[in-house]
Amino acid sequence: MNKRWLINRTNPEYVGYLSKAASLSPVFAQVLINRGIKTPGDISDFLNPGLTNLSDPFDLPGMKTAVDRIKTAWRRNETVLVHGDYDTDGLTATAILVRALKSSGVDVHYFIPNRMSDGYGFNPPSVALAKRIGAGLIITVDCGIASFEAALSAKGQGIDLIITDHHEPVKRDGPETKDERSTGSSRFSLPEAVAVVNPKLDLLNTKLSMLSGAGVAFKMAQALGADGTLPFSQDDALRLLDLAALGTVADVVPLTGENRTIAKAGLKYIQGADRPGISALISVAGLGEKEIRAGLLSFVIVPRINASGRIGDSADVVTLLLSDSAEETLSIAERLDRTNAERQRIEEEVYQEAFSQLNRKGHDAAIVLFGKDWHMGVIGIVASRIAEKFNRPTFIFTMENDVAKGSVRSIPSFDVYSGLSACSDMLISFGGHRQAAGVKLNAADLMRFEERMNDVVKGALQKEDFLPTVEIDSEIPLSTVNASLLREFALLEPVGAGNREPVLGAKRLVFQNPRVVGGKHLKLKMRQKSLSIDAIGFDMGNLLDRLDSLTLLDAAFTPAINEWNGNKYIQLTLKAIRPSD
Length: 581
Hints:
Layout: E1 4-7, H1 12-21, H2 26-34, H3 40-47, H4 63-76, E2 79-83, H5 88-103, E3 107-111, H6 124-132, E4 135-140, H7 148-156, E5 160-164, E6 170-171, H8 178-183, E7 188-189, E8 195-197, H9 213-227, H10 234-238, H11 241-250, H12 257-271, H13 276-284, H14 294-311, H15 315-322, H16 326-361, E9 367-372, H17 379-390, E10 394-400, E11 403-409, H18 416-422, E12 429-432, E13 436-442, H19 446-460, E14 469-472, E15 474-475, H20 483-490, E16 504-517, E17 521-528, E18 531-537, E19 552-564, E20 567-579
Parallel strand pairs: 1-14, 2-3, 2-4, 4-5, 5-8, 9-10, 15-16, 18-20
Antiparallel strand pairs: 6-7, 10-11, 11-13, 12-13, 16-17, 16-19, 17-18, 19-20
Helix pairs in contact: 1-2, 5-9, 5-11, 5-15, 6-7, 9-11, 11-12, 13-16, 14-16, 15-16, 16-17
């Protein structure tokens, strides 16, 4: 129950105006205002993102040069190597570009690095592979923006390089010039390449700046289709939207702007079962005839794809996504399903060991845990689970040959990349962003690192920053929750990062028949006046005993339609509860 409750409020007159102007309920109008959608025109664009909303792919820096070089490879009949990445974003990006190039008549091959043996990103061994297969051009997807050594190696071998990426480029030292300040651009250190296609290089184009790696690859497919030279059309490019949507949802980029258009259109293709590989994944996951929404992709499909990169080899995933054979795709999907089950077993084993260690040693402002031979592929998930449970920046390390390799997950109030920068003098290497990072240091320095990081976190945060926050879109009477409101909420799909599910709040609710179901979930009914609605609080079963002394509750919740034994009814998914008054 110890959470901060923040309720968004807007001038009631403006909410009333927007509600009438857009023919929406006041509650839904408030939800949209909270997301920065404040005019009838903005509402129409947001709720109805059509393919005409897609940006010109040549707005991306480097795109024209990249397409010209690909056309040259096509004319010369050169071999092209696409270098991908082992997570869902990188794998879907690889499949998009390979399909586009192959459909264009280009002799294309691909390489997916192994997390354990090859490490992350575009590295010199990949250039050696390109040399062996006689490739005259390498195209990276979802990586490469900081691969200076590999880029030089490719140049030395006489192999051209195109980098497509969406990660932050390396900034050069020194102050910006007057021209750079006036244009909003910044000076970057870039690897030597024929072209670098990265939306982060254009600080003024905010519509494209948050594309995923798969999103960038899709824009390149769009550009190839729009050029008119290659035997690959715009319609061919649009048929890759299902892959782009899968990568976009998986990479947790904001589902707004261009990403929203890609995700919404791509989900329709996925629902239409146009791609055997994705249909096979849906089948083995037991989703059957369910409507495929972004949440199901995130929590059911994406883990099965990522499992191969965490504890196995991801190359088969690209085969799965490219194959037109129902038999082949089902075989690969079943293998991924088994791999995911094994990943879950290993993850739970490491989690229990880490949790036991945490119970023994306790924690301060930061949580630092380490074990010998903890699987490198799952420590990031374990860090996420512990960070969420305790609302502390969490560092999970596995020891290997006197070196501690770690995965870091943070909380919204703490910039973990800046925190690691403050400790850089004692690190072998680190990289990442505000909420997640990887780090490597000598195992002998772990205790000293823990002390230093605790000091850094304490210096950056206040006591209240360690309390999880519940952000409530609108305070309502329970009678407002009805089928009409849920139909409006459905228009927000796809929901996810940058466009979260609405959270509503209601005060002074009578609760009835509280009990624990599934061993850890709180189930009860919430009543206000004559209206009673079922509610469930996932992982909130520990609160049952505390309800004995209470009469009325305030609740923060997301309403949804629940289906059980063929019956459909409204159910509140609880986000937080507290004693009234």
